[in-house]
Amino acid sequence: MGIGIAQTGTMIGGLAADSHSLDSLSRLASKDPAKAVTQVSKQFEALFLQSVLKSMREATMKSGLLDSPEQDTYQQMLDTQLAQTIAQNQGTGLAQMIARQLRQDTSQAGTSPAAPSAGAPPMLQVIQAAGAIQGSAKNAVNSEKGGR
Q: So what's the pLDDT on residue 5?
């Protein structure tokens, strides 16, 4: 049994899958959409790198000598941290390409990156929608706890 992305919220920059990071990313999207696009593209690159590292680990043969569920958990944590560190520093260039494409879509749509709304770029709409879904999920959990 491994550790999920949402359980590793103390990573560099945090991932959008972490509820605290999603809140801050949603606030950032409303204040500075250009910076939010950069942050989202870095997070996507980190998730991509984490997937690559996971696939590489699965492709290697295991000796059986030191294999255990605990070691798998620590390897997943290491892979997550490595992916975050690589993406937050220079990265592979994937984040820059994604950010450039999102900004290009914004300029072609003729929307102002300073005012996210119904005419906002699709990525900012996704961030805002995720923040709204997360907020309603928190309210549902809190009301369920209060009802017991």
A: 39
